[in-house]
Amino acid sequence: MKLLKLLFPENILKSKEALPPLKKTRQGIELKSPEAIAIMRQSSKIVATVLKEISEIVKPGMTTWEVDFYAENRIREMGATPSFKGYHGFPASICVAINNEVVHGIPSKKKVIREGDVFKVDTGAYFQGYHGDSCITIGVGEIKPDAARLIKVAEEALYKGISLVKPGNFMLDMAIEIEAFVKANGYTVVEDYTGHGVGRNLHEEPCVFSFKTNQLPNVKFKPGMTLAIEPIVNQGSKQTKVLSDRWTVVTVDQKLSAQFEHTVLVTETGHEILTDRSKI
Questions:
Q1: 3-state secondary structure at position 46
Q2: CA distance to 76, 178, 187, per residue, from 158 (Å)
Q3: Above 50 in pLDDT, residue 115?
Q4: Model confidence over 232-261: pLDDT tens digits?
Q5: Which residue among 87, 178, 260, 263 sits deepest, i.e. has the most Cβ atoms within 10 Å of its Cβ?
Q6: Distance between CA 39 and CA 35 in Å, rounded?
Q7: DSSP 170
Q8: Cβ count within 10 A of residue 88
Q9: Whole-Å CA distances, 183 to 17, 26, 188, 189, 242
Q10: Can you list the domains of the chain with their CATH numbers?
Q11: If phi over 0 gives left and psi between -120 and 50 gives alpha, with beta otherwise, what is residue 5?
């Protein structure tokens, strides 16, 4: 789940279990303890498992409500609760976005997934006091070459950025790398929505941007940071608008949008992708 320009207020913990001690930087960014990291590996593994399974079962004719129903059941079966459901009033366990939809689409029994769709699904899991968060874009059935290329570039852009996550590097280093790669391929990076810190709360400091800016804090990466890195790549204009349901965001020019997200830990020597689906 994305952020609109400024971070949401902190999420109230859903349980009273004892959590590891809190350590923060001067910027208010929580540096996770080894105990917290161990838990986040589990919450993130749950998210990665659900998304991998969804990528294998999604097919034309399914409704987005069916995907949400599946995701919620699987999250709960693995001992977690859906991070998104009820968050700021959001009514579902996943955010879905199809084709020109960018983020925050609400699953519906009336919304049918069709052959050739560019289907984004974003979900989170809350496990023993900590969240994991990730998003994938799925090409449904046979998709057009331009759609396949957009999806490929969006995924590569995420990994280009993640490659620069290590102690001593700065957020802006990562953001410039992502945006340069996206622009070189003829696309744009959405600036209205960014990534975020993640941990005890679904949305924490810092703001994790994917574009060159001097308007947001240029945080230095430090061991123990856990970040939801999630560039959104548009086929046309980077501009977006919110529909009348007050949730669903679309591209202003109706062109396609694609996005991938991982929860990433900054380690002593580099990084660890906690929501890595390849390890499931």
A1: helix
A2: 28, 7, 14
A3: yes
A4: 999 999 999 999 999 999 999 999 999 999
A5: 263
A6: 7
A7: B
A8: 12
A9: 45, 33, 6, 8, 24
A10: 22-279 (3.90.230.10)
A11: left
